[in-house]
Amino acid sequence: VWDNCLQTIRHSVDPQSYQTWFVPIRPVALNSNELTIQVPHRLFYEFLEEHYIDVLKLSLQHALGTAGRLQYRIKTARQENGQAPSTSKTPRGHQSPPPSNPFVIPGMTRPRIESNLDGKYTFDNFIEGDCNSLARNAAKAVADNPSNTAFNPLVIHGPVGLGKTHLLKAVGNRITEKYPNKSVLYVTTDTFTSQLVSSIGNNSTNDLVNWYQNVDVLLVDDIQQLINRKKTQDVFFNLFNVLRQNQKAIVMTCDRPIIELDIEERLRSRFQWGLTADLSAPALETRMAILASKASANQVDMSPQVMEFICYHIQNNIRQLEGVLNNLVLHRGVNNNKEIDLELARQVLKNFVTEINKEITPEVIQRTVAEYYNLDVEKLASATRRRHVVLARQISMFLVKQFTDQSLKGIGRLFGGRDHATVIYSIKTVKDLMETNDDIRKDLEDLERRIRAGHGEGS
Ligand code: ADP
Ligand code: MG
To answer: What positions does the domain AAA+ ATPase occupy (predicted)?
Structure first.
C-alpha cells in the first residue's frame, strides 16, 4: 500500500523533496484501512504535516479509498538499537504529545497542528516608519533573495512589542510564497532548546541536527533565550556553521543588541557577521498609522481624535496598542455597539497606562512638543541654540503660557532658568510666526489638538 502511495507522491513533489521527506518513511502496519508509517523523528512528522498533508491524503485516497486513515509513529533510539519497536515511544519533553497516542490523521478531519508560520504576519500589514525602515528593508531583501549571503545572518533586535516576530514571520511567509520549494522553518529559541533537551533524553540529537540542516531558511526568534544555556549554544553554534557554509539563510531576533548578549564569544562574533538592524519605538505618526491599519483590518471606526488620544498614551509597545483596540471592540460590543468615543477610550486606557493626566501640565506640553519635533525633551531646557531646538523651545513656552497658569518667571525656570525677558521674546516670536508662516501655524494647531487629545478634552 505504501509503495502505491509513494507512486502518487512521486508525481506530486519535486525529486529533492521526495528524497528528503518520503524515502526515509517506513510503512510499519496496515490494519484494514489504517496505514501506520514510521518517521525518523517528531520534527519530520511536523514538517510533513505542515507541507505535505494534502499530498499524503491524496495518495492515501488512491491507495485505500476515502476511508483511508493514516497513523504516524516516531522512530525511537531504542528501535535504532535493534530493540522491539514500540508505538508508545515518542520523544520526551513538554513539546511532545502523550506517549500512548501516536499521531493520527483520521481521514480528513484531524485537527491541524498549529503551524509555525501563520500567514497573519506579512510585509503588507507591517507599517513602515523611521523606527523600523532599516529592519524592514533588510528583512525584505532576505525574503526576496534568501541566497544572498551579504545579510547572513540577519539579526533584528529591539525591545518587546515592536514587531520583531512580525518581521521574522513576514520573511518566512514571503519566501514560502515566492520560493515554494525552499523549506522555511520558524522556531523560537525556547522551542529549539526543548527539542534539544528531548532529543538528548532520547539519544536522537544527531537526527535533530540533521533535520535542521535540511532547512533552507531558518528563522530563530528570541535568541536572548540562549543566555545561560550552554548546551543549546554549543549545538546551535555547529548548526549555524553548517547552515551558513551551505549558504542557507538565517534570520534571528533578539531583545537586545548582540554586543550586549551574554553568550559564548564565538557565537556572538558569528552573529555579527551579517547585518544587524534595530527596531525602536515608533513616533506618534507611525503609531497612528499602525492603529489605523489594525482598526480598519478589524472593521473598527474611530475618529482621528480618538486614535490620537490612544497613541499619545501608548508609546512604546505596539502589542499594547492592539490590546487597547481589542478591548475597545469588546466594550463597544457590550455597549450596544455605541460609537468609540473619547470617553470609552479613556475607560479602556486606564487598564493599560497608570496615569492619564487630568490636568494639562507644562511637562505634558514639553513632552508633546518634543515628540512632535522628534527631540529629546531635555533639549528644551538645555542651552542649545540650534535653530530647530530654539523654535521648539519657543513654541513650548508659548503653549505653556496658553494652557497653564504659570507665570513668566515660572516658565523661565521650567526651561533651564531663562529670564523673564527671554520668555516674553519667545512668546512674541511665536505669535508673529503664526501670522506669517503657514507651516508654523499648522504645527501649532496640531500641537494644541494633541495636547487636548492627550487629556480627553476634545478640541
Ligand atoms: P516583538 O516580537 O518585537 O515582541 P511582535 O512582532 O510580536 O513584537 O509585535 C507585536 C504586535 O505589534 C504584533 O501583533 C505586530 O503585528 C504588531 N506590530 C509591531 N510593529 C508593527 C508595524 N510596524 N506595523 C504593523 N503591526 C506592527
Ligand atoms: Mg516576539
So the answer is: 150-279
